[in-house]
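Our platform keeps sequence and structure together, in a single record for each protein. Such a record has a labelled line for the sequence and another for the backbone structure tokens. The tokens are whole numbers drawn from a learned vocabulary of local backbone shapes. The remainder of this section carries one protein's record, kept here as part of the documentation:
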Amino acid sequence: MKRQGNNQNQPPRIVVIGGGTGLPVILKALHKKNADVTAIVTVADDGGSSGVIRDYINVVPPGDIRNVLVALSDMPQIYKKIFQYRFVSTDQFFSGHAIGNLIIAALSEMNDNGIFYAVQELSKMMNVEGHVFPASNEPLVLNARFSDGTVIAGESEISAAAKTIERAWVSGMNENVPHAVNEVISAIMEADQIVLGPGSLFTSILPNLMISNLGKAVCKTKAEVIYICNIMTQKGETERFSDADHVRVLNKHMGKKFIDTVLVNTETVPKKYMDYQKNGEYLYQVKHDFNGLRKEGCRVISNNFLRLQNHGVFHNGPQVVDELLRLTGRPLSWFDDECN
């Protein structure tokens, strides 16, 4: 039986797993509510500033971790802006790097115990409310096998291949078997609710679940496992996917139907709204297949979760979080009253 709250007088323990730009959207909205939040963040990113830093000093890619820290931080806004500041292209030595990425990389070098514990120190410095846990204490490599039998390593290379992905997995350094530290596993097993996404299916969500002990914990936990389905399909990853296809891929990789509830957006993206030059990785709106979702054994919650901004398509964080909080079994007024 799935758990619906450890104690109705205590804040629910919500673990959000993912990466990319979708994770901070949900965390920012959760941060404003009375919930005990833990973010488990992918460490397989190899693009942009994170990729460059990773290549030079062999550290866990810091970009996703940086954005999550800011989303849950209570430090003054000016400090957040400094932490997020990205050097302009004319600064050749620092070009494209965010100050926060450099700080995380420095702390990981200073801490002999690895990136996980460096992030815990930084969380204290940034007055983070909740917990930010890297999925692994070492950088991981995402691998994919495509329908034509070819295999490619590296998140950026996989996305650029523009082929149908059949299987994804992660590998560690020196052929080590990737694993999550005990704190990550404990957070999952003790949670009241596990939230997957929103985020890229193959490059933000599955890299976490493919860490053996982490994936097993998600399948064994008594917490309700909720998947926030993407609104748009992604080039090189989920082309022509329906919402049921997303869930089917997740269940197939885990070897069981482990997702209890799926949140799907039902609002139509206006024609010609998307700026595809700016958001070239997104293709079409995800199609709905409610019969397919039922076959995957999950409950479906559909609503208008759409937020349109700057000719891009995003999840409406507060609207999604309201649904998540309802699923804890408490009225929404409980969270507002507790915050006052």
